[in-house]
Amino acid sequence: MHIQIQCCGIVLMMVLFYFYMRQKRVSLDTQRAFLGVFFATFICIMFDVLSIGAIEYRHVLSEPFAKFMAKSYLVTLLGVAVSALSYMCVDIYAKQEVYRKKMSGFWILGAAGVIATYAAPLHYRYAEDEEKVLYTYGPGVLVTYGTALVFFITIFYLLKKERAKINPRRREAVCIWLFIWIIASQIQYMYTDVLIVGYAGSIGIMVLYLKLENPETNLDRSTGLFNSGALYQFISQFFAREEEFAALVIIFEKHAFQNVQIQKHEIIKMEIVEYLLKLPDALSFKNAEDEIIVLFTDTEAAEKRSAEIRQRFQAGWGEDHTNVVRPFWLYLPHSGVTDRAENFLYLIRYVRQNEKELSEHVFFTIEKDSVEKMYREKETEQMILDAMEEDRVEVFYQPIFSTEKHRITSAEALVRIRDQEGNIVPPGMFIDIAEENGMILRLGSIVFEKVCCFIREHPPEQYGLDYIEVNLSVVQCGYEHLAEEYIRIMEKYGTSSRCINLEITESASTSAKKTLLGNMEKLMEYGIKFSLDDFGTGQSNLNYIVEMPVDIVKFDRSMTNAYFENRKARYVMDAAIQMIQGMNLEIVSEGIETEEQYQTMEELGISHIQGYYFSKPLPENEFLRFLESRMDGQEVQ
Ligand code: C2E
Ligand code: MG
Ligand code: MG
């Protein structure tokens, strides 16, 4: 019999099956679909062998039976084609109902193919001579191949059309699998004694297994828990099915193992893992940040179950239960507050990083407000990105008045974003977020570039301006190459360093002091001067002024306002003014809105005033018009 090759295929598949079943698996639709292809291929190879046997022993088993078996083999080929198609559709139609609906059409076509194959006549040629030929032909074969062809064309079509929806590894694996089949059937067609199609099927299965379906790739090697890849697939499936789950996140910060001897850490961790692995109705995953995420599919029981887990932790670990581990706990009662796996994972990271309460509360329940905050921040992030991409970042200028020269002598550049509807978004809405995610570096450079461009087109001295003040964020101050970047921009626009004054804040001077000082040194060498912004907010420390090589100190609006509201603030400000003036530094008072405030500041000897009293921050053109109108009839000194 010509069944040696098929038998090799059967053995190969049995080995794969052994390895597959031996592993712990997370219940995924893709795995069920893979098992579908696996069994379809296995049955196909078995029938290949059986049909050859039936043909060889047709004298004993009867001619109709041999034909029936040969047709059954053909039918199993259709089974392989349908299962391959359903395997690929798992990614495309993630929603169960859609998947079933789409697949039902193919099942009907498959069933029609099966009936037609059995109904149509079939012939075979079998010679036991030297040639060892065995092949089937006739309408039955044509019907099978025709139907299978429809499936294969559909697979190719979907691979192309729904490319974006299919996991790239699955796409590649399915392509290799199809390729092997096509090559094998060509070889078998040309050399009729080489019956390798069945074997090729088993090789294809091996490719799928190795590339995508090996359950081991879903496991975390060190703990045996499911890994983040499995977590992503598992929860994606839940969201696709619109099913809810609850999650308990266990975060092992350093202090969690504070009361455990260092040599026992690993043993205790494994004991915890073993406990989690045995939990009924819950699946535990370990993510890339070394957190453990326990998922409960029964959301009603989840709260009770998670309380039990926490109690178990309180009971202590180790033989004598003396090792108490105190992790942070994040609890998400309803996954429905987010809409996708990506957002769920992002939410956990977000809450972990942003909820200040987390360090105070060992147990934190993620409520709707955390989620809303996260979405708002995400939206803002996108808005900033889009604005930068689509050149919707604008710079407004707020004039600064010199009490000595009695005219506008400088201005502060203040960033704005114009949203898609054309409305202006103030920096209070996005600066913090841009600082948190690092976009401020790019945003800061864009603002600086726009200021330099503005200076080139409208030389400040023509408008009586000495310089433009540009804000630097804390994050920018801590960026090693800031000085080089800003000097490069100034050179690009031929900006004179005299025209630029950079504003730093107190917070910058503490956090990244060394880098900031390095940057300041390089920029000062280039001729740039600095102001200390926001003086009077936070923990104002007069030492900063002594330590920082600044020329100007800017009093924050809150400080100037307090001057008019309480006596103590007045004393503080008087002393600060004396000291700053004693150091020969200039002062800018921000937030001056009324004549009275202006008069008082002038009397106090404040050299510069900035505030709505003179003007709000203005867009470029209005700012130029404002300057021109003030220059009319006034000599620029
Ligand atoms: P800041 O640097 O202290 O800027 C002064 C803020 O006070 C400006 O708010 C200005 O519009 C406002 N202001 C000035 N005079 C008055 C007044 O008389 N009354 C009132 N109510 N407000 C007044 P703005 O433009 O909303 O900027 C807020 C903050 O955003 C800035 O505070 C600065 O810290 C930051 N910022 C603005 N532009 C940039 C930028 O390009 N880069 C960076 N890193 N931060 C920026
Ligand atoms: Mg400022
Ligand atoms: Mg300020």
User: What is the tally of helical segments?
Assistant: 25
> Mind describing the biggest β-sheet?
8 strands, mixed, barrel
Q: Specify the overall morphology.
A: elongated
Strand residue percentage: 5-15%
Average pLDDT confidence is: 89
- Terminal-residue CA separation: 109 Å
- The percent range for helix content is 55-70%
The helix-and-strand class reads alpha/beta
Q: What is the radius of gyration computed over CA atoms, rounded to a whole number of angstroms?
A: 37 Å
- Number of beta strands: 17
Spans where pLDDT lies below 50 across 5 or more residues: none
- Kindly report the spatial arrangement of strands forming the biggest sheet: 8-9-11-12-13-14-15-16
- Could you tell me which ligands this complex binds, including any ions or cofactors? ligand C2E, magnesium ion
Overview features:
637 residues; 5-stranded mixed beta sheet; 25 helices; binds magnesium ion; 8-stranded mixed barrel; alpha/beta; binds ligand C2E
In short:
With 637 residues, the protein is an alpha/beta fold. The radius of gyration is 37 Å and the shape is elongated.
Molecular structure report:
The chain is of the alpha/beta class and 637 residues long. 57% of the residues lie in helices and 14% in strands. The protein has an eight-stranded mixed barrel with strand order 8-9-11-12-13-14-15-16, surrounded by seven helices. Helix 4 (63-92) runs parallel beside helix 6 (139-161). It starts with a helix and ends in a 6-residue tail after the last helix. It binds ligand C2E and magnesium ion (2 copies).
